[in-house]
Design a protein that fits this description.
Layout: H1 4-14, H2 17-31, E1 35-44, E2 50-54, E3 56-57, E4 66-70, H3 73-80, E5 85-89, E6 103-108, E7 111-115, H4 117-128, H5 138-160, E8 165-175, E9 179-188, H6 191-205, E10 210-216, H7 222-227, E11 234-235, H8 242-249, E12 256-260, E13 264-267
Parallel strand pairs: 4-6, 8-12, 9-10
Antiparallel strand pairs: 1-2, 1-4, 1-5, 3-4, 6-7, 8-9, 8-11, 12-13
Helix pairs in contact: 1-2, 5-6
């Protein structure tokens, strides 16, 4: 017999229109408030935040790599070994990177279902609907922009130390003053590894109300469509003369802000 959480998610994924609508109501009422147990560790991070390292299980064949998430603690204890585990609200899964390369395995004893990145994104959107009546204030948007620029500083430093990374574009998408997501377009060899590393940085420097999504540069996707044309946060092809390096050392990267109020309006940083 499936755990109610798995049952609801299966119904949302496979049911007809009426079943999906009913399951969606149950999801917000019964699933979102629940705890889940995730393989990985949490420890104090910089700026008073918590550093979270999730354990990623490699996929077999054409399967995507995935995070191992449990609906009861006993299963997490049995599988954790030296990896460790931590408890979080189901909403935490909404903060996991929704790239095209990583899924979530939701486990209950011998039963397990895989939540694809696309399905997680739809759940994220459903969870966001609860916040539609609480628009962000100007001060909150300013704080988001500051956090995104802080993330950009650390992301540029990470990329500069990775020979495989060619270029990184960032843009902060703010939808109707209600939800926000930092978008990243990444050009790199082994982009999945570096995208996951940037997502971990996001967990350190981005507030809970700001999501994070990345995509390989050149891929036809909403992320790529949003960030192309913005100035790069990092490029390995930048001038390497001493004057250019000096200017970069004293000029932190600024993230372009995209505000959508029924239309797209890209605000480039000065």
């Amino acid at each position: 017999m499936l755990h109610p959480t798995l049952e609801i998610l299966v119904q949302m994924h496979e049911g007809d229109a009426d079943g999906i609508a009913q399951a969606g109501l149950r999801f917000k009422r019964e699933v979102l408030p629940l705890p889940v147990w995730i393989l990985g560790t949490q420890m104090p991070g910089p700026y008073g935040q918590t550093r979270t390292d999730t354990f990623m299980q490699a996929g077999s064949g054409e399967e995507l790599p995935h995070w191992c998430v449990y609906v009861n603690e006993a299963d997490a204890i049995a599988d954790a070994g030296q990896t460790g585990y931590f408890v979080a609200g189901f909403r935490f899964l909404m903060l996991l990177p929704d790239s095209a390369d990583i899924a979530v395995a939701l486990i209950d004893g011998e039963h397990a279902i895989t939540l694809s990145p696309q399905f997680l994104l739809s759940l994220h959107g459903l969870a966001d609907m609860d916040q539609l009546d609480t628009p962000m204030t100007a001060a909150q948007i300013d704080a988001l922009t500051f956090a995104a620029n802080t993330f950009a500083i650390h992301a540029r430093a990470y990329c500069a130390n990775q020979a495989q990374v060619e270029c990184l574009h960032l843009a902060l998408l703010i939808r109707a003053g209600v939800t926000a997501k930092l978008l990243a377009s990444l050009s790199a060899t082994d982009a999945a590894m570096h995208g996951a590393a940037l997502a971990e940085l996001g967990k350190q420097f981005l507030p809970p109300r700001c999501g994070f999504a990345w995509e390989r540069a050149g891929v036809d996707s909403p992320v790529e469509d949003s960030v192309k044309g913005t100035r790069p946060c990092y490029s390995r092809h930048e001038a390497q003369d001493w004057w250019s390096k000096l200017k970069r050392a004293f000029n932190d990267p600024k993230v372009a802000v995209i505000r959508t109020e029924g239309h797209s309006n890209i605000v480039e940083p000065r």
